[in-house]
């Protein structure tokens, strides 16, 4: 191995690695890149002696004044780092494993790029201090029950119907601004209803449906991606390619009535635009300024509308889609308003991923693992693993029946 590689400071490799692992043009986006960057920074601090126990001085000999290089790395370093992660009592076992995997992946990349001669992080002695899996099963994770799904969809449906009725039954002499306020309320309620129904029944991942600020390719589903006649929706899948997802019957009507009320001027409008006023104000002002309008004229035009969203609709100024975090905030608000009992140790609301897992449970129980895997866009092996608690429960019922039949004459 070249001496140049061995004498290279560790953090000199980070940016190239992150670009290779990132998404989008230039490798600047993606959740993996963000999380890996965080863990690499922590690892670099630890190797320099800036993180860890009070008596930890890092991996560079105490009588040497330089930053850590690849020449300082061996399996003993990674073993010590695994011990450092495991000794952090605030981390769960699975979290320790996850954090170590980020560093291990970087180590493997360094071997391929010529920085290291061996994948030290994957050696058994290096990984020995890592805690074992904590035994948490997929069935322990939140999945919307049939009762919860019914309660939430009924709540948003009633709320949307009331808002639409209030808007469409306004007297003809209603003040224009009051009519705008009613339309805005109806749009927000029907958007929330459509979002809940899609999350509850399609099993599409929330990251495939909405905007991810860290991945420019995930800009949120647009109306051009949806075919209400065929019952399909094109989404950018987790496997990094576009694919069609199914829109079952319960989803069609909420989407159709919502689209009719919105009446977007083009099919490129996001299906689930943000309603955040600060964001919309900035988008509208920037768009009108780009069209050559004077700031005073822009403000007068904005003053004529109850909300910037309505001006954006009239002027075909496309706002961004809501983000995945925005969807979580909406579901927190709706869960609380619907007064749904959650009883889950991690989430006090119906989280987006719970809708997907809930549909997974329905499909596995009704049609088995193969059909569920196709609908959920996953391998059958993974679905069997994630929903193994269902098979375990069914086997328990079989065992109970066998015991009863065997012991009936005793």
TrEMBL record:
Q: Where is this region: Disordered?
A: 1-33
Q: Does the keyword Hydrolase apply?
A: no
A GO molecular function assigned to this protein is:
DNA binding
Cross-referenced CDD domains = DNA_BRE_C
Query: For bias kind Basic and acidic residues, which ranges apply?
Result: 13-26
InterPro entries registered for this protein in UniProt: CB, DNA_brk_join_enz, Integrase-like_cat_sf, Integrase_recombinase_N, SAM-like_dom, Tyrosine_recombinase_XerCD
Supply one GO BP term. DNA recombination
User: Keywords for this entry?
Assistant: DNA integration, DNA recombination, DNA-binding
Report domain Core-binding (CB) positions.
5-111
* Name under which the protein is recorded: Tyrosine-type recombinase/integrase
In which organism is this protein found?
A: Halobellus rarus
Which lineage do the record's taxonomy fields give for this organism? Answer: Archaea, Methanobacteriati, Methanobacteriota, Stenosarchaea group, Halobacteria
């Amino acid at each position: 191995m070249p001496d140049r590689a061995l004498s290279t400071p560790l953090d000199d490799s980070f940016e190239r690695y992150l670009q290779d692992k990132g998404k989008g043009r230039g490798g600047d986006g993606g959740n993996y890149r963000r999380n890996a960057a965080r863990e690499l920074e922590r690892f670099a601090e630890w190797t320099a002696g800036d993180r860890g126990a009070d008596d930890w001085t890092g991996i560079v000999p105490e009588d040497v004044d330089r930053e850590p290089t690849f020449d300082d790395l061996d399996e003993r370093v990674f073993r010590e780092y695994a011990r450092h992660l495991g000794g952090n009592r605030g981390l769960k076992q699975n979290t320790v494993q996850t954090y170590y995997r980020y560093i291990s992946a970087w180590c493997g990349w360094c071997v391929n790029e010529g920085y290291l001669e061996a994948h030290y992080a994957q050696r058994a002695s290096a990984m020995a201090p890592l805690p074992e899996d904590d035994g948490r099963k997929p069935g322990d994770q939140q999945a919307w029950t049939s009762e919860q799904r019914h309660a939430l969809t009924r709540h948003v449906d009633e709320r949307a119907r009331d808002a639409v009725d209030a808007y469409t039954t306004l007297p003809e002499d209603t003040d224009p601004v009051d009519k705008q306020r009613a339309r805005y309320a109806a749009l927000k309620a029907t958007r929330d209803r459509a979002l809940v129904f899609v999350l509850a029944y399609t099993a599409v991942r929330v990251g495939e449906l909405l905007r991810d600020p860290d991945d420019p390719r995930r800009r949120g589903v647009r109306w051009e991606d949806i075919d209400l006649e065929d019952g399909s929706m094109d989404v950018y899948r987790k496997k990094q390619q576009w694919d069609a997802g199914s829109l079952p019957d319960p989803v069609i009507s909420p989407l159709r009535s919502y689209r009719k009320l919105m009446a977007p001027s083009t099919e490129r409008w996001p299906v689930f635009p943000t309603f955040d006023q600060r964001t919309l104000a900035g988008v509208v002002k920037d768009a009108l300024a780009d069209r050559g309008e004077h700031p005073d004229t822009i403000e007068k035009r904005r003053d004529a509308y109850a909300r910037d969203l309505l001006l954006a609709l009239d002027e075909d100024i496309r706002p961004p889609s809501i983000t995945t975090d925005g969807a979580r905030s909406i579901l927190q608000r709706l869960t609380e308003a619907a007064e749904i009992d959650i009883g889950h140790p991690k989430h006090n609301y119906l989280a987006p991923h719970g809708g997907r897992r809930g549909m997974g449970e329905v499909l596995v129980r009704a049609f088995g693992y193969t059909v569920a895997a196709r609908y959920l866009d996953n391998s059958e092996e993974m679905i069997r693993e994630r929903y193994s608690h269902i098979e375990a429960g069914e086997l328990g019922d079989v065992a109970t029946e066998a015991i009863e039949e065997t012991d009936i004459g005793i």
